C-alpha cells in the first residue's frame, strides 16, 4: 500500500483530491457503481491499467474507506470489491465530470477502447423518472436503475435481471450525441435513432415525447 500523499491544503477540493485524484481511482469507482466486481473483471474493463497499479489503487481505496473487499460464499469463493456508502457518494461527481468532459469525446480514435456499459452514466443523466431500463448497443447490453436510491448498483452489465420498464436499442453515435448534449434522448427517439419498447412509464414517456 502506497503512503497517502496530500496537497497539504486546508481546502475541501484539495482534501477530496487527496483521496480520488490519483490516476485510475475514479474509473475504478465507475466500474464499481455496477456493484461488486472481482479483480479480474475490473482489470478486464480497465484496459491500460497494470496489475500492480490496480492492486495498489484498490488497497488505497480500501484504506481510505471508499471500498471494501469480501469473499463470496461457495461455490464462488472469490474476493470481490464493492463501494462503501462514502464511495457511492461519488456518483454525482462522476456525472458532473462526465458532463464536463463530453465535449472532449470527438471522433473515436483507433487506440480508444470502448465498453458498452461506459455509456451507462451518460444515459442515466438523460433519462427522467424511475424504473429499470435495458439498453442494447452494437458493443453489448447493459441495464440502468433510473432514479434509484440507496445502497444498490446504479447499472449492470448484460440484460436486465427482470422485465424492464423500457428497452432501448441505439448506436454509439447516438449515445455520444446525447452525452455531448447535441441531442436529447427524446429528440433521438422522435428522429428514429432510438428504438423504444416496453410497457412501463419510462417507455411510454419516451414514445409520447
Kindly summarize this structure in a few lines.
The protein is 38% helix and 18% strand. It has 209 residues and is an alpha+beta fold.
Topology diagram in text:
Layout: H1 12-20, H2 25-32, E1 37-38, H3 39-44, H4 51-63, E2 67-71, E3 79-83, H5 85-88, H6 91-101, H7 120-126, E4 131-137, E5 140-146, E6 155-157, E7 166-170, H8 172-179, H9 185-190, E8 194-197, H10 201-207
Parallel strand pairs: 4-7
Antiparallel strand pairs: 1-3, 2-3, 4-5, 5-6, 7-8
Helix pairs in contact: 7-8
Please tally the helical runs, counting DSSP H or I stretches of 4 or more residues.
Answer: 10
**Strand order, largest beta sheet:** 6-5-4-7-8
- What's the order of the H and E elements? HHEHHEEHHHEEEEHHEH
Report on the biggest sheet. Answer: 5 strands, mixed
Q: What is the distance, rounded to the nearest whole angstrom, between the alpha carbons of the first and last residues?
A: 51 Å
Q: In total, how many beta strands?
A: 8
Helicity range of the residues?
25-40%
Q: How would you state the average pLDDT, rounded?
A: 93
Low-confidence stretches: none
Helix/strand-derived category reads alpha+beta
Radius of gyration: 18 Å
Give the strand content.
15-25%
- Specify the overall morphology: globular
